[in-house]
Amino acid sequence: MSRVTKFAARDPGPAARVVGFIAHLRENGLQLGVAEADLAMAALVEIDAIKPSDSRRALRAVCTGCKEEAERFDDLFDSYWMDMGRVRQKVAPPLSNTIKDDVHSSSDAKGEDAQSAGSATAPDGQDGAADSDGTGKLIATENRNLNRRDLRDMVRPEEIAAAEEVARRIGAALRDKRSRRRVAARKGDRLHFRKTIRQSLATGGEPLRLLRKRRPERTRKIVALCDVSGSMSVYAQVFLAFLAGLMRADTAADAYLFHTRLVRITEALRDKDAMRAIGRLSLMADGFGGGSKIGPSLMRFADTYAKRFVDGRSVVLILSDGYDTEPPAMIAAALEKLRKRGCKVIWLNPLKGWADYAPVAEGMAAALPYLDAFKAANTLADLAALEHDLVSV
Amino acid sequence: MTWTDLQTALGREGYVASDDLAVALQLALSLGRPLLLEGAAGVGKTEIARCLSAVKDTRLIRLQCYEGLDAAQAIYEWNYQRQLLSIRAAAEDGVTGKAVEDRIFSREFLLERPLLAAITQDAPPVLLIDEIDRADEEFEAYLFEVLSDFQISIPELGTITATTRPIVILTSNGTRDLSDALRRRCLYTYVAYPDRATELAILKARCRDVEARLGEQIVGFVQKLREEDLEKTPGIAEMLDFAAALMGLGIADLTDDPAVLQSTLTTLLKTQSDQAQITREVAGRIAGKAA
User: B137, B170, B190 — which closes off a domain?
Assistant: First the structure.
């Protein structure tokens, strides 16, 4: 930990290292631009940059933007400056082809030395667990090679476009009519006194024109949780297209996948290119088609993300068949917790579309008392038909 | 002033800042960037602005955000009533046209709201934008304009340019995800619940006459309580209330009287289910562990 990364002798200087560090952060998913690199330099001038602890704190303040990033920052910092992991990227991009390891670092491209902890420029020969397409990933990160499937094989662009339309209509159906404050409106239900009096000044204090106000309709935020466990894999195509469409149609929507873990996919799905979004998703959704832990996943959601993203104006859509490997009481407890945030909970179960379906799966039965709506959905057409049902929720 | 000086200065004002927070504050001051503080409710995000203004010996201007906050509440508003009166008075005096207009759209009739007030001070004030996540996303856009250019355009009056650059501190409880644009413009620090030693220092700074042994117990108890699965985890403010309650009741030892301990828990547990969960026995057990 205390060991500081030795940079190559012909390293172009501290500025380039900082730029390299910013590039390293960027490759690990932090959104940083030239302005941040500039700011990072300015920040390092302001503090005692020789002290690793100070520069760590300064760079953390500058380079991170949310709690998750701040938590990851320490590892990323260590991997670059404190020699805790190796980076595939070369330090200074413009000079990368000229940089060679100096004599102190014992490793070279062949990776012969087991002690090859010396250099940020050493390519990793022995550690093959990294993602095949991530160029600068921190190799220290644990990689779960569960059951990875490329979701792009399952979803077609046309479906996303169709789903986008469906999602847009569902979003429109879910308007909230409970806004507290009234706004001026031509066909309002109440008089807008302030405006009326203001206008009356023009007519010598006689209120000739009566202005009105009403409660505006507010959009509700849709939070979708999609089960992608093994039992759901036949429906995954529809639901993933729906999620992708939803994210494109509604900028306030939020989406998650769960199987044995819960993954937030909102950012990935917001990618401008719909297919690339699905591609990014496949990287995040390893474990896809495996077992399902609905209860723990929902509980985790209620404990973490829900506190930030779910409020009284949210509608939580759960897309799952309710087959859980964990005790059903967990689902009930999680839903109860979720309901306390004031949101509506809608469960869309693909099995409900079957002729003689009854919610006998224990998980489903446990969840029923907490649901505002329990509907069938296994095709896009079914989802489209939900529009009318959801108006009343 | 280095960050350690700042930390000591804040300490004198009764604020125990972590090293991370002190560095971030120091950078915010020297680089002139807004500082975004996130963290659970009751970890002292708002308090930092108050103490910073005391350290810097400047005014604290606070903008409390809420849903529906608009430019009229945050930046400026014309004083309509005075304008109307002025028009009536002008009509009686026989003044009309441009003269009236010039008069009613002057600085005299402008109600300064926090953002305008912050940039027109003589000495740089501390501008606290509290709970920015409660404001609408549209409001963030207003804020950018002010925070990046430090000037405000008023159509009737022209552009008001900042006389000083305020020290801007934004806080967020995470009720809504903030836009990336806002995060990019700010330095960022996550304020976590303090560790035992820090919390003890805070208690000592705020309640000087608390006995060392009781102080240890209070902090230990609250720290243990945070590990329980509660709906609303008690923050520092709650801990201080708890300490004040105990001192007010003249309690010297937490483990003495479980009934009194239970009754003071109203300062820490703020939901019905939390209160039901921490029964007298549980409270006694936690107090025993903490002691």
Answer: B190
Please give the radius of gyration of chain B, using alpha carbons only, rounded to the nearest integer: 24
Total number of domains in chain B: 3
Closest residue in A to B230 (Cα) is A303
Smallest Cα distance from A205 to chain B, Å: 12
Residue span of the structural domain in which B260 resides: 196-286
CB contact under 8 A, A35 and B184: yes
Which residue, chain included where needed, has tokens 């006389």? Answer: B163
Asked whether residue B95 falls in the same domain as residue B117, the answer is no
Phi, psi of B235 (to 5 degrees): -95, -165
Q: Count helices and strands (H / E) in chain B.
A: 15, 9
Q: Which of A46, A71, A307 sits opposite B174 (nearest CB)?
A: A307
Phi, psi of A30 (to 5 degrees): -85, 140
Count of alpha carbons within 13 angstroms of residue A109, beta-carbon side:
3
Q: Considering the domain boundaries, does residue B83 fall inside one?
A: yes
B148 and B280 inside one domain: no
Between positions 174 and 213 of A, the ones with CB within 8 A of B are 181, 198, 201
What are the chain A neighbours of B31 within 8 Å (beta carbons)? Answer: 39, 42-43, 46
- Sequence-ordered list of residues with C-beta below 8 angstroms from that of B136, at least 6 positions apart, any chain: B67, B68, B69
Q: What is the pTM of this model?
A: 0.62
Q: Is the pLDDT of residue A56 over 60?
A: yes
Q: In one letter, which amino acid is B163?
A: T
Q: Which of B27, B176, B177 sits opposite A43 (nearest CB)?
A: B27
Q: Which domains, from first to last, does chain A contain?
A: 1-142 (no CATH), 180-216 (no CATH), 218-391 (3.40.50.410)
**Shortest Cα distance from B123 to chain A (angstroms)?**
22
| pLDDT tens sequence across B120-164 | 899 999 999 999 888 877 788 778 778 788 888 888 888 888 888
State pLDDT tens for residues B42-70: 888 889 999 999 999 999 999 998 877 87
Would an 8 Å CB–CB cutoff place A251 in contact with chain B?
Answer: no
Q: Answer yes or no: is pLDDT of B169 > 90.
A: yes
Give yes or no: residues B30 and B133 share one domain: yes
First to last CA, chain B: 40
Answer yes or no: do A46 and B68 touch at CB < 8 A: no
Asked if residue B178 belongs to a domain, the reply is: yes
Determine which helix (DSSP H) or strand (DSSP E) holds A115, and give its type and residue range.
none
How many beta carbons lie within 10 A of that of residue B252, not counting itself? 11
Which of A43, A60, A198 lies closest to B20 in CB terms? A60
Residue of A nearest to B191 (CA): A67
